[in-house]
């Protein structure tokens, strides 16, 4: 029995063993209460029909994520060799203009995906999955490098680009890993789609993509792999 226990422990400690762990479950939920309170706070009413559409399409959003999301998360884990620091999380969808999509708390603003709001991605379901993947990756990468300025000691590239905005720096490793995931899955068109989706958000995002283009994705991924050990 001791020999078997030793063998099992050794297998767990093998370099690739951590990457074999399943990706975390991402649950998707909605409460109109958040939209109502948030909209009142920011002085912008919930668009007519938006809450009703979210309720009607919630299972659709869940199905979309189930079809593609776990594979994205698992591939990111295989690339870095680092398991996720959480087993389950809840993504709250909403339409309040006061909050963009963000990782902590995990909020996904679905205005871009609703007919009630004339969303530009209403016929692009893959972009909902990409948005949720993007925000979940933020939490994953924070677990590897650390948050904000705490990440710099573990990344020569972050020190190199220390004069860039925090938003730009926070997206460098993410864009590199996100892009590599899509390439490994044979979806290079999603790299272009993610880039195009980020561009209207602001110049900090455009700058982050430009830096990753200049350096290449691999140096950033190498830092994630090194920090993950």
Provide an overview of this structure.
This protein folds into two domains: 20-125, no CATH class; 140-228, no CATH class. Helices cover 59% and strands 7% of the residues. The chain contains nine helices and three strands. Helix 4 packs across helix 6 (166-184).
The chain-level mean pLDDT equals 90
H/I helix tally: 9
Structural class by SSE content: mainly alpha
Largest sheet: 3 strands, parallel
What's the helical proportion of residues? Answer: 55-70%
SSE string, helices as H and strands as E: HEHHEEHHHHHH
Supply Rg.
19 Å
Segments where pLDDT lies below 50 for 5+ residues? Answer: 1-17
The proportion of strand residues reads 5-15%
Number of strands: 3
Q: Give the neighbour order of strands across the main sheet.
A: 1-2-3
Structural shape: globular
Cα-to-Cα separation, first versus last residue: 30 Å
Keywords: Signal
Brief write-up:
This protein is mostly helical and 229 residues long. It contains 9 helices and 3 strands; from the N terminus they run αβααββαααααα. The protein folds into 2 domains: 20-125, no CATH class; 140-228, no CATH class.
Topology:
Layout: H1 2-13, E1 25-29, H2 32-42, H3 50-80, E2 88-94, E3 107-109, H4 125-145, H5 156-160, H6 166-184, H7 188-198, H8 203-215, H9 217-228
Features:
229 residues; mainly alpha; three-stranded parallel sheet; 3 strands; disordered N terminus
């Amino acid at each position: 029995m001791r020999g078997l226990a030793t063998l099992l422990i050794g297998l767990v400690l093998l370099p690739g063993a951590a990457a074999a762990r399943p990706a975390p479950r991402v649950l998707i939920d909605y409460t109109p209460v958040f939209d109502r309170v948030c909209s009142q706070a920011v002085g912008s009413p919930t668009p007519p029909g938006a809450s009703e559409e979210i309720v009607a399409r919630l299972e659709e959003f869940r199905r979309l994520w189930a079809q593609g999301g776990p594979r994205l998360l698992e591939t990111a884990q295989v690339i870095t060799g680092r398991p996720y620091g959480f087993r389950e999380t809840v993504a709250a969808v909403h339409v309040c203009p006061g909050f963009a999509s963000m990782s902590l708390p995990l909020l996904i603003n679905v205005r871009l995906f609703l007919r009630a709001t004339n969303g530009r991605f209403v016929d692009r379901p893959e972009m909902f999955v990409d948005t949720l993947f993007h925000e979940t990756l933020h939490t994953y990468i924070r677990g590897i490098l650390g948050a904000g300025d705490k990440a710099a000691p573990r990344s020569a590239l972050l020190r190199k680009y220390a004069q860039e905005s925090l938003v730009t720096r926070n997206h460098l490793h993410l864009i590199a890993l996100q892009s590599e995931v899509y390439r490994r899955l044979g979806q290079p068109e999603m790299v272009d789609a993610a880039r195009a989706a980020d561009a209207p958000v602001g110049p900090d995002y455009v700058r982050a993509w430009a830096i990753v283009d200049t350096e290449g994705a691999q140096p950033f991924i190498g830092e994630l792999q090194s920090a993950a050990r």
